[in-house]
């Protein structure tokens, strides 16, 4: 699928998921991550499957198996804050990529308990980032 078409379809899916109030998708729990565009300055919300780890949420920057980084991850990497909405509450978060053995462990857990991200990884040339969304404390 062409990038522009993929982005349009993804936005429609995100709207439908929000309007239906879905909390689960493909057997996994959903959170809603809102980030502000690093170039546009516009706020966008993306539903993401997640793994809970203590106070943090662990997500894969899979972009639905597309071979480019998702906008939400580019925004977080640029230092933009995010907001996680889950279970009726909103939490300001920062995002950081996990590397090394910790990444490998979390990647296994994501694949075992959340979704088959290995299938996405096999289709793309980039390495899918494992991202920890950590609450920002004032």
Automatic annotation (TrEMBL):
Pfam families named in the record: F420H2_quin_red
InterPro entries, per database record: F420H2_quin_Rdtase, Split_barrel_FMN-bd
Catalytic reaction equation(s): oxidized coenzyme F420-(gamma-L-Glu)(n) + a quinol + H(+) = reduced coenzyme F420-(gamma-L-Glu)(n) + a quinone
Matching PANTHER family: F420H(2)-DEPENDENT QUINONE REDUCTASE RV1261C (PTHR39428:SF1)
Family assignment from sequence similarity: Belongs to the F420H(2)-dependent quinone reductase family.
NCBIfam families the record matches: hi_GC_TIGR00026 (TIGR00026)
Protein name: Nitroreductase/quinone reductase family protein
Source organism: Terrabacter terrigena
């Amino acid at each position: 699928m062409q990038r522009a078409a993929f982005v349009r379809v993804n936005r429609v899916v995100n709207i439908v998921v929000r309007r239906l109030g879905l909390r689960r998708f493909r057997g996994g729990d959903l959170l809603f991550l809102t980030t502000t565009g690093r170039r546009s300055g516009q706020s966008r919300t993306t539903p993401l499957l997640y793994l809970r780890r203590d106070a943090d949420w662990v997500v894969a920057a899979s972009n639905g198996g597309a071979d480019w980084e998702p906008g939400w991850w580019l925004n977080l990497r640029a230092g933009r804050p995010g907001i996680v909405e889950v279970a009726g509450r909103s939490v300001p978060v920062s995002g950081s990529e996990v590397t090394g053995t910790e990444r490998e462990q979390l990647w296994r857990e994501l694949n075992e308990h959340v979704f088959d991200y290995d299938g996405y990884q096999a289709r793309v040339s980039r390495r899918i980032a494992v991202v920890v969304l950590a609450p920002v404390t004032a």
